[in-house]
Amino acid sequence: MIEILFGPDDLTRIRFARSPLEELVHSVPVLAGTRRLPMHGPWLAMARPRTTGLDLGVLLALARGPRIVPDFLAPSPAAMTGDVADELDDIAATPADVVRASLEELRTPQGLPAELRPLHDDPGRELPRLVDTMAAYWRAAVEPVWPRLRALCDADVAHRARQLTVGGLDKVFADLHPEVRFSAPNRLLVDKPHDAVRTPAGKGLLLVPCVFAWPRLLVLHNEPYQPALTYAPRGIGQLWADRDDLASPADGALVQPLGELMGRSRAALLAQLDLPLTTTQLASYLGVSAPAVSQHLAVLRRCRLVTSERAGRWVLHQRTPLAAELLGQPTVP
């Protein structure tokens, strides 16, 4: 059992974050087939040919562990949305002793996997090579689908923010994952096969939704990192539903015919709204201003193609069944 004991300052510093690096790391075993998750079949069909020729041996050896992923491989993002380049820079700057200590957790009675011995022996030489491989893998396999992953994580964060509003931390953790339980007033209990106690001492707790983490719950509890839980967001079963083209909806053939009818910007906006999103999120994803998005949404609401509903501090927009029919896409409940 892992226990995280919160002080008064920690309870006010529980926050959410998205991490492209977490998606990168946890997608590697799925791509390699060491974690067989049929739901990701459409992504695999896209990613496998794009990653041909990449030597993923070291990255897979680090990421495929059934229980442990080395702490340095996915440090907690400092902002709400981690920037993958910054996160990779953080990995490259990891001190050699921290790398070795993390690798020791992967040691078995037979020793370290052969792929990891050079990294253990000379982190200064091997870590930049690992980071270069991760950057190439990101561009090939994860970046093309990052808008969809991000949208699903955003919808989950919005849902849990509503839970926090109506039921506090008990409600947030009640269905986060079967392995985690909040014990008032200040204990978070995580059911894992090893024992550890962590007092964040004012660092709080980070909650990171990650599509490719499913069905696992991952815990970062070692010093000096901020404690973090990586969990699977809701709605993963619909992530790739009926989607043959995994390019960004704003760029793919999906919106082209509808764009000729209503304009490319509004068609692209509808394509993004298979999950509830805020105006700010839509503006970010489409690369336009928030006022422009608001104008498009007003028109689409009048045409009964979009609904807008307040949820706490946010107003979430989602396309209607009529809009989904026009796009030939399902509506996620």
Describe this structure in words.
- This protein has 333 residues and is of the alpha/beta class.
- The protein folds into three domains: 2-15 and 148-236, no CATH class; 20-144, no CATH class; 247-327, Winged helix-like DNA-binding domain superfamily/Winged helix DNA-binding domain (Arc Repressor Mutant, subunit A), CATH 1.10.10.
- Helices cover 45% and strands 13% of the residues.
- It is built from 14 helices and ten strands.
- The strands form three sheets. Strands 3-4-1-5 form a four-stranded mixed beta sheet. A four-stranded mixed beta sheet has the order 2-6-8-7. Strands 9-10 form a two-stranded antiparallel ribbon.
- A hairpin with a 3-residue loop joins strand 3 (180-183) and strand 4 (187-190).
- Helix 2 (20-32) packs across helix 8 and helix 5 runs antiparallel to helix 8.
- The two termini are 35 Å apart.
- Mean pLDDT is 83; it is low at 244-255.
**What's the overall average pLDDT, rounded?**
83
According to DSSP, the number of beta strands is 10
Report the span from N to C terminus.
35 Å
Biggest beta sheet attributes: 4 strands, mixed
Q: Please give the radius of gyration in angstroms.
A: 21 Å
Q: Major sheet: order of its strands?
A: 3-4-1-5
What would you call the structural class? alpha/beta
- Report the helical percentage: 40-55%
Order of helices and strands: EHEHHHHHHHHEEEEEEHHHHEEH
Gross geometry: globular
Number of helices: 14
- Our estimate of the beta-strand percent is 5-15%
User: How many structural domains are formed by the residues?
Assistant: 3
Runs with pLDDT <50, length 5+? 244-255
